[in-house]
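yo, L-glutamine synthetase is done. seq:
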Amino acid sequence: MQVEGLDIWRVLKGAGVKYIYFVIVDIYGRPRVDIMPIDMARDAFIDGVPYDGSSIPAYSTVNRSDFVAVVDPSAVYVESWNGGKAAYVFTNTLDGNAPSPLDPRNVLKQALERAEKRGYQFKIGVEIEYFIVRGNPPELPERAGYFDVPPGATRKVVEEIMENFAAAGLGETKTHHEVAPSQFEVNIPYGNPLKVADSILVFKIMAKAIAAKYGYIATFMPKPFWGMNGSGAHTHISVWKDGKNLMASVKEPTQELKWVVGGILNNAISISAIVAPTVNSYKRLVPHHEAPTRVVWGLGNRSAMVRVPYYGGKINRIEYRHPDPSMNPYLAFAAMVLAGLEGLENKIEPPPPVQEVAYDLQGVRETPPNLGAALKYMEEGKIARELPSEIVKAYLGVKQAEWQSYVQQYQWEKTWNTITPWEYEQYLTTV
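structure:
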């Protein structure tokens, strides 16, 4: 590991990189960075980055705060949109000599290792939706719709994001204008969930920086405007064993696909606070705006919580439509992997797939009405017991404080259908 890290440092220095941003992921899924000039960073690639864990939300207390973040040499991204002068290098935090259970990257790594010990490899890809807006409270700079050619107001931003996507190390992708005005979707390439989670963070950094260059805000707030579609983070999942995609079939879903769906639907309500983690998330989860409100699945059915893509009758994955871009992708993917693994191991059969518009269904389970309810379901659910107890306790603590901050100022029953100034302040530029 040390030699490999030093090799990466040499490559970055040779490429003209001037600064290294060592990334530590916090409990919200936000990047915290220690910035070093390239020459000074050499030792950090070998020995790790020492830092004050008590200053990272929920990591530690002031009396036990000396942590070391070790470099992951497979997680390096160059800031191409800023001339390639800086590189983002992801780390994993050690507590002593052991992986810290409060580091979300460690949590996801452990969930994936658990699946691999049982012979399964989970692969994930994510469709991230976001808005390009101006100001706070936000205004829409254009009024285009689904698959429209981006108008001049947003076109330069989108094109520059696309120009830098592969150059930054994120892989090949595509994008399009989404249903709402000034809303776009980009595909985070399919692969190892840890790499995909890292890529989401880098993409957010990049999109925000490029939008700001043109005087705009790229916001990943789930529901910045009432009365139109919010932004989802539709997560495509497949499960592999011995090099074979267990979900690949024609016409009819495989048994393994059904079991994974069963596991996810079985746990969907209890992991809602992880995949839809903000007060604002539950204003997205309302009927008739392409966000799921019923815990059901269907073939090619975008009103269902889990959709099986069914182009020409070919099947190779599932799409979990519950998550939104405010999620901590490491914790969210860990929860999804554990839920899917439960379905496979316990052979959980899902209910029959639905063909109807799911919003009209009665007598089926529904998504929690708000973050407060979602946190109670999480606390009582099985996946919370499968994740490290330290991070679950910390996560519930920060999210319950977030919910209390909202309800001290607003009544949910009176504000569930409006976007408040508190939400813009909390989420417009931070998630």
